[in-house]
Amino acid sequence: MHYLIILFLSCCLVSIFYWHVIQPVLLRVIRFRLFEKRDQLRRLAIESKEDHTSFAYRGVESLICKTLAVIPAVSFISFIWFAVRNVDKKDENVERLRKEASPLLLEIAEKTVSDALFIMALNSPIMILFAAFIALCLWVVGCINKLAIYQKTEDFIDDLPNDFANDRSGIPQAA
């Protein structure tokens, strides 16, 4: 009986430490990395290496801004639920972005999607352990690949509502 109490208290302490120290620090690191990507993107436009009026540029900028503004409040289970409900759905905007974007813009978008997945994982530590096991099994069998996960994540971020655009308090906005 004493072991159960000690185990319970240990779990509580680990949980408090995770949610009040580890998760906020890692989230801040990723957010600053995303700000760096957005600055890099805008620097490309300033140096005339990318056209800031192009669909691809606007799409990548929107992806970064939505990731910064909305994804920290989204759990991994929300993403999985979206992926399961929309298995065959292809977003035209994401497909067009992939066709029109330069290799540099595609690299920035891919890194942004990777950061978005990591943020969702930080928001769902127990679910991510279960999902990682399932994903590993599906990957071994050959049912999923990295590109499919990244494309589904881009679709998910693109489908997120733009409600955050009305509330500008502390939310990063496109210039």
Quick overview:
With 175 residues, the protein is mostly helical.
Describe the protein's architecture and organization:
Helix content is 74%, strand content 0%. The model is unreliable at 165-171 (pLDDT under 50). The protein contains seven helices and no strands. By secondary structure, it is an all-alpha fold. α1 (2-46) packs antiparallel against α2, α2 (55-69) crosses α4 (92-100) and α2 runs parallel beside α5 (103-122).
What is the CA-based Rg, rounded? 18 Å
- Series of secondary-structure elements, N-terminal to C-terminal: HHHHHHH
The number of distinct β-strands equals 0
- Beta percentage is under 5%
If you average the pLDDT, what whole number results? 86
Task: Tell me, briefly, the overall form.
Answer: globular
Number of helices: 7
Set down the secondary structure blueprint.
Layout: H1 2-46, H2 55-69, H3 76-85, H4 92-100, H5 103-122, H6 125-141, H7 146-159
Helix pairs in contact: 1-2, 1-5, 2-4, 2-5
